[in-house]
Amino acid sequence: MRPDGRPAEVRRLPWGPALCLVPWNAPAPMAAHKVANALAAGCPAILKPSEFAPYGVRRFAEVVAGTLAGRGVPGGVFQLVNGDGDTGARLTADPRIRAVSFTGGTAGGRSVAAACAAGLKPAQLELGGSNPLIVMPDADPGRAARTAVDLLTTLNGQWCRALGRLIVPADARDALLDAIGARLAALRAGPPLDDDTDFGPLVHSRHRALVAAHRDALGGRRLSTTEVPDQGNYLAPALVSGADPAAAAEEIFGPVATVHPYRTVDEAVALANGTEYGLEGYVTGTDEEAALAVAWRVRAGEVKVNGSSVLSLHMSAPRPAWGASGLGEEGTAETLRFFTNPRVAGVENGFALHSREAP
Beta-strand (E) ranges in the chain? Predict the structure, then answer.
């Protein structure tokens, strides 16, 4: 209410046609999150999946289109468009698109951001990360080893919140690496649809070659004890010790991470923050309060203490990003808000300038 008792009403209204760009590593879940929020906000939605996973959203698109048609929603309110990066670029730059939500690599995110900036349209970007795991001095070696292996091998290392840098106490490094090596050796590599498989192939041969080249360029000593098939796009998980921290600051997006010893907790935090990314961080330690205090010092959108799952800490918590890891926030409420913009209207019954005229 205004001081004169008249209301000033705020409504959040849809931007208009929205473009949802989803990656190849989780096409259906990301499509569901983005498209559902866009439609709920009142935005017509165009979905473009990665060209490397064009079939991952087909069933989802069929269900959405059928549901909308059954409710009498006009055709074209939801559309599925397949194509490569050039297709995504043309859609992003199209003036009819009023908002863009993108999940993918940092290079692609920069291109989306530039195109949106030219059109002064909002962009929601969830990008990559070189995510640190800080092993506290009091950490249980077995628990720390399990955490590191989980983060290194989940989705075969092909997820934006995977382990990028393992930061360990210098006097515990060798024992911890021995425990990790034993866990990696026990993994069973094979076809993804086999129930006995713990670790599968990478998405395609070109990506495997890129990850392997990045691993080899790091130099250092390699810990890699998982046996993988000779045929197919398999790449054994690897930890690389002795790599220059500056060279290890980039995202690899595969089952490869670097190892960095530290002598003080301040040094560990500095190593964790020594990258332009800021997506996810991890801290493991026996004293949870001490670990949580360190977690608050890590420059990342989310930092988990003693955890390694793909889920967020809370379903309703935002999924923010710092630095080169993104722009804006994703989340249960945050993505819905992204597809809207506020409008304020009300009766002012006043004038900007004084006048001698009778009211």
Answer: 8-14, 18-22, 45-49, 78-80, 99-103, 123-126, 131-135, 163-169, 221-223, 238-241, 256-262, 277-278, 280-284, 302-305, 322-323, 326-327, 340-346
- Looking at the chain, the whole-number percentage of residues with pLDDT higher than 90 is 89
What are the structural domains of the chain?
8-127+325-344 (3.40.605.10), 131-305 (3.40.309.10)
> From residue 66, how far is each of 30, 39, 57, 61, 325 by CA, in Å?
19, 14, 14, 8, 35
Instruction: Kindly report, residue by residue over 57-92, the tens digit of the pLDDT.
Output: 999 999 999 999 999 999 899 999 999 999 999 999
pTM for the whole structure? 0.92
Task: Quick: pLDDT tens for 222-277.
Answer: 999 999 999 999 999 999 999 988 888 999 999 999 999 999 999 999 999 999 99
- Tell me whether residue 43 is one of the annotated catalytic residues: no
Torsion angles phi and psi, residue 125, rounded to 5: -125, 120
Report residue 337: phi and psi, to 5°: -65, -35
Identify the active-site residue in 20, 160, 251, 280. Answer: 160
DSSP 3-state of 212: helix
The order of strands in the sheet holding 302-305 is 221-223, 238-241, 256-262, 163-169, 131-135, 280-284, 302-305
Q: pLDDT digits over 17-73, tens only?
A: 999 999 999 999 999 999 999 999 999 999 999 999 999 899 999 999 999 999 999
Six token digits for residue 209: 């070659």
**160: annotated active-site residue:** yes
Helix, strand, coil percentages for the chain (3-state, nearest 5): 35, 25, 45
The phi and psi torsions of 43 (rounded to 5 degrees) equal -95, 130
Q: Tokens in use for 252?
A: 């690899």
Q: Apex CA 191: angle with CA 179 and CA 51, to 5°?
A: 110
Residue of 126, 251, 302, 330 marked catalytic: 126
